[in-house]
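Let us practice reading a record.
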Amino acid sequence: MTRVIPIASSGSCPFKRAAEIDFMDPVVQENWFTAYDILRDEAPIYFMPQIGMYVLTRYDDIEYVLRRPTLFTAGPDVQDKEPLIKHAQARDLYEQKGWRRYTSLGENLPKHKHYRALVDPKLTLAAIRNKEPFIRGVINELIDTWIYRGEVEFMKEFAEPLPMIVIGELLGFPRMDLPKLKEWSYAWVLPFSRGLSLEQEIWAVEKHIELQHYIFDAIRDKRRAPKDDIITHLTQVELFDVEIDRHRPLTDTEIIGIADHLLIGGNETTAFAIANGLWLLFRNPTTYQALQTDPTRIRNWVEEVLRIESPTQGLFRHVTEDTDINGFNVPKGATLSIRYGAGNHDPAKFPDPVTPDLERKNAGRHLAFGIGEHVCPGATLSRYEQWLAWEVLFDRVRNMRPVPEKDDYTHIPGFWLRALKQIHMRFEKA
């Protein structure tokens, strides 16, 4: 195998102390892990005035929060304090043209478990294994389009379309709609970058409303002609509503919210994880050699990719009463920024955290999908797609290597997601 030159993950950082770190600074967003290390060492629970939140960077503290979903909530109370769409003019578009931006899968207890009970059976390992021939077929079709070229822009021609095609199939969306779905998906996650202008928020909301109407049309079609897909399933099941103490059909607003949540969660983070995995291979040639020699280690590889380059760097929690976290007082009404990426680099939990270890015993204990009540519903699907993707890639492609004149390995700016802008690969056909 041609030796791959390791690529630095970031340049030198201008900040040395917690007080110098602002999560809205693009320099910090490009150097998350250096910033996390400083915060973890100096102030692992740190009130960051620039964002008005307490930032948590230690694994044990994050796990403590995630295991207590009534004390630290994730639902509408967070939106009340930290609305995703900041400008009222943009928020009002939902009432004028679409449906309110509602993610029932993000509701708090006791509602949350009843919504998850409708979705989780469709995303179990057994259910996803039934789709393995389809997923393998998509992987091979994508590789077929560039296997004879010897070079590919891996993000656009593999990492992005694979999970979008798969989750589209599960939801019941035609593959020909992939370009529209990708644009809508991008618009859906854009507000999580925070700090958008009014014009940017209006664009994102209008695109999201287009997606809402697309899903609404699918709901009507599937009520008339049911298929074997998740949206059809949602039109036929009944939710136990804790407020009226009985079962009832889901509303269109609820189905739209569940479907767009699954669409975005089922493609964006998986795409970023697959691309991040290639970047890690470029930086760790001995790991690449080990995986080619023994593909049975792919599952641990996927866990290490998710841990080291977590596609979701963090989420929010609302504090429902005065409490303390590891002896640190946190007031009722505060918002926490729980940084999954920081917990996943905590050396107290994962020794030598920046180096992939195919023998790491606790590799699967990372926080990339969250843990506890609000663990990502698509975690099993994402893992399965990544396992199969790397299995087929290692079988069909040799000597994967970077194209340094085309990539600088910088990331799309944002507060929430960690995504490379692009990543090119040269290779030989196996």
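A brief commentary: The chain has 19 helices and twelve strands.
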